[in-house]
Amino acid sequence: MKKIIIMIFLISFTKLFPAFETDILVNLAASSSFPVLDSKTIKVNGSTEVKPEFSLQLGYQFPINRGLKGFSFLLDINAEQSIIGISYPGNQKVVNKETAINVGGGLAFKFIIGSANSLVPRDTVLGFTAGAKAMVYTPELILNQLPLIPFGKVFIEQRFFVSRNLALVLGINVGYDFVMFSGNDVHQLFMGYYVTSYSYVNIGMSLGLHFGS
Fold first, then answer.
1. Which three-class secondary structure state does DSSP give residue 30?
2. Which among 74, 109, 146, 171 has the fewest CB atoms less than 10 Å away?
3. Per-residue pLDDT tens over the stretch 48-69
4. Taking Cα atoms as reference points, which of 202, 203, 123, 206 lies closest to residue 171?
């Protein structure tokens, strides 16, 4: 019942304020991690895991009269589950693997290409997102400092409109996360190895709803 009320509110709000838009997206990505150590004699690999993410995007669409339907500028609030993992080369066994919850925000920029001649009313969207996340919860670890994670993502989406102000969204995306750990927490996370940097490359698919014109 609450979900229905929220959807009715969002649709009504976008009718009153046509430039306002909201995207609610669920993303599922294959995420490969890449740890870099300070020693040239010891090397460890990361791991590839499935990373679920929830994203709420709020902002405005500005009309453009030069071949594009519009340009959107949105605040992106997101939460995700990620895996911190390392393994030895040539061995598929992960020797250290921890689950983390990340929460963050950023700015999303979207270029909307209208499809006026399509049998199904739809828009093609090209865009990118940039921002930062914090690793706010690690169930099995007590960290001295919350790791900060700057991130960037490029994406393409298809919006299939079921009404004037409601569309189903399907998309694909490629992203990069750079994790910034404090020196005291590195040894706990990586079995005594000093990791100078730790990053993720993510390739995912998204599904969600778009509220707005």
1. strand
2. 109
3. 899 999 999 999 888 877 668 8
4. 206
Q: Are 85 and 98 in contact (CB under 8 A)?
A: yes
Place of tokens 């989406």: 157
Angle at 170 between CA 165 and CA 171, to 5 degrees: 125
- Can you read off the two tokens belonging to residue 189? 């996370």
Residue that is written with structure tokens 């995700």 in the block:
80
Using CA atoms, how far apart are residues 135 and 124, in angstroms rounded to an integer? 33
Condensed to tens digits (0 to 9), the pLDDT of residues 3-47 reads 554 454 445 545 544 578 999 999 999 999 998 877 665 677 888
Cα distance between residue 44 and residue 82, in whole Å: 19
CA distance 164 to 151: 33
Q: Which residues contact 40 (CB under 8 A, 6 or more apart)?
A: none
What is the C-alpha separation between 8 and 84, in angstroms, rounded?
A: 39
| 195 strand-pairing partners | 37
Q: Report pLDDT digits (tens) over 97-110.
A: 888 899 999 999 99
Angle at 82 between CA 79 and CA 83, to 5 degrees: 165
Rounded Cα distance between 175 and 56, Å, is 17
Residue the block writes with tokens 């969600």: 208
Interacting residues of 83 by C-beta distance below 8 A, sequence separation 6+: 31, 33, 47, 49, 51, 97, 98, 99, 100
pLDDT of 114 above 90: no
